[in-house]
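Supplementary Note 3. Input sequence used for the single-chain structure prediction.
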Amino acid sequence: MILEMKVPSPGESITEVEIATWLVEDGDYVEKDQAIAEVDSDKATLELPAEASGTITLKAEEGDAVAVGAVVCLIDTDAKKPEGAEAPKDTQKKEQPKPEQRASSGAVKSETYAAGTASPAAKKILAEKDMDPAAVSGTGKDGRITKDDAMNAVPSMGTPTGGNRGTTRTKMSMLRRKVAERLVEAKNTTAMLTTFNEVDMSPIFALRNEYKETFKAKHGVGLGFMSFFTLAVVRALKMYPAVNSMIDGKDMISFDFCDISIAVSGPKGLMVPVMRNAENLSFRGVESEVKRLAIRARDGQITVDEMTGGTFTISNGGVFGSMLSTPIINPPQSGILGMHNIVERPVAIDGKVEIRPVMYVALSYDHRIIDGKESVGFLVAVKEALEHPVEHLMNNDVKKALEL
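The predicted structure, written as discrete structure tokens, is reproduced below.
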């Protein structure tokens, strides 16, 4: 019996996936539930398990975009398992070429096809420009130089140096392409503005220095900045509910809960998992959830459900050294808070200049539903909570708030 394996739906609204890596070869014998491929959706990378045991015939190439429900391989369930074959391990993948091998093979291919494979029209244009076809990278099939390539080619006016001037063309993953689409969508469909402020982090530094060791020993997680920022954002969202809203057609939907998306880096690019009902989380709860989601994103285990449904986003560019930025809204949300690096700066305190650890913060917001007064007020509320955490975030009882 020949079993047709079709692409399952990874989640609501996802219509296609990309074959990232085949974990088996054409003609291999596979066991039921063995991972046979890794597929990329626009939100995550998932493993595709075999639906039955048998000999597999691949029907799609790596890099192909395949519609949900399309056949990607056939399994001959009548085939007998080869004698002496060991049971495959789910985690075992076919050997991949090393990055330097891929780059090398790509460069050879470019050189092989670029020289003397221009179309007649392209040859004529290059001759008029007195350009060697070997100096032009073709975008046509198999590296063929097209008329557009020749027209866009610019003769080198610099002094030849004899150095390497090669280029590498790499197909973007489906996740990266979807991120790009969403960023452009946010810029084109929202009236996005950004307001800035600065935060004196001295009070938080003092609290962390005094309690971080006890906190970690008690709860098994560190007392980081994300718990302070998350709880400060939750407080500000309650004060300015328009920031915790989104547009749906001609309606504005406001939420009485705070699902906070946090931007983290994963192996496939930016991931934005969600902390559900952050308004119910304590310092320990936030730190534990941030750690759990970050580990899942790093290990490629994050699911579609864990990355959908946020009502507001916090992005921490400071971990990469960013001093200031204008974060882009994560649609359909209406606001995003950008954190940045902490630098000792001179500030005026009671008429005197003092050196304090200062962080610049930025709020990007959709001006269609959030007015300037609300946006500025929201960011001031965040600043107020961070500079007076004992009063505004801990109810004047530090040990109880930290559950010590």
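The mean pLDDT is 84. The domain at 175-401 is CATH 3.30.559.10 (Chloramphenicol Acetyltransferase).
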